[in-house]
Design brief:
The protein has 2 domains: 34-193 and 334-358, Triger factor/SurA peptide-binding fold, CATH 1.10.4030; 211-317, Roll (Chitinase A, domain 3), CATH 3.10.50.40. It is built from 13 helices and 9 strands. The strands form 3 sheets. A 4-stranded antiparallel sheet has the order 5-4-7-6, with helices on both faces. A hairpin with a 2-residue loop joins strand 6 and strand 7 (306-316). It has helices at residues 34-40, 44-47, 56-64, 77-87, 102-125, 132-143, 149-159, 164-184, 193-202, 228-247, 251-261, 283-290, 323-351; strands at 66-70, 73-76, 208-209, 212-220, 276-277, 301-303, 306-316, 319-320, 356-358.
Amino acid sequence: MKLCALALTTTTILSGMLMAQVAPVASHAPNASVASHASMTATASSGMSAGAALTPMTQAQMASKVAIRVNGADVSELDVRREMVTIFPYAVQHNGFPKDAEPQIRKGAVEMIVFEELLYQDAKRRNLSVSPDRLAKAETAFRKQFTHQAQYQEYVKVECKGSPEVLREKIRRSLLIEKMMKLEVSDKAVVTPAMVREYYDKNAKEFEHSEMVQIQTISIIPPQGGNQEVVNAARKKAEDALKQAKQTKTVEQFGLLAENMSDDDWHTQMGGRKPMKVSDLPPMVAKVVAGMKPGEVSDLIQVGNNWVIIRLYSHMPAGKTPYAEVQKKLSSDLQKQKTLDVRSALNQKLHKDAKIEVL
């Protein structure tokens, strides 16, 4: 299929925690809780730049530096760096970002932050709200991410200007963005079973396949330029391998023999090959495979100067993959593609009259 892959981001990251020891969780998971956002931001304190971990003073400086302005709303450098760590969490282990990749990582972080800020501003224009109960639960969950009370207080001091109300607004902001994503993306990107079936019926060629086989091989390959004695020795080794191969009854037994005797690159995979088109096989191999049943072992097949033994694992005639076999993956792919399309359209709409300054 040619459907695009997608990595969704659905909610904003709250301004980050100072303790690096809190384990991060997956980035921007759909419908993620605010508490999860707090965990994600923990990496910011130990991986935002090359060298030693950032000190609270450095964080305070970055928190006060404006990096982006979206319709007059300021976004700090600390927020950008934290989003960069979310995109590339290995920065924590490697003490920074790869120099060649850092500009692109930063570009992605800026785009995500701008998108979420525009969502938030749109939510405010619509007068969307968060219930007091939902806000209180999210705030409690957020505070539980801190190992010690002192860490929570330091976070509030550095990134919330010492005000619990500022923190509460950050949490409300995150929940509003999450709500907007549900209203404007998730709820509008539903793919029904009928839509999946319709796609399958209208795009039949995508699900057609050639005649396919999956095989295990043992290959005996004489050294290049070897004399007749070397060639004869290879033939003798191939005959010995064939006798043992004929005695195998299972994939594992043949595979162990391939590991010990085969000279090809697949011996480390127990001789197993990925599914192959019959048309891609050497003609002499394709001819032998055509007369085999799954589980059978061939006689010696000479391919150039090499000797090959084949065990047929499966043989699939040319045809169309049944709907039942592709339904689950097709539904997932269509859902991802539609979500991507809806999100992209929303992003364009939000940007239409926006004033965005990257400083």
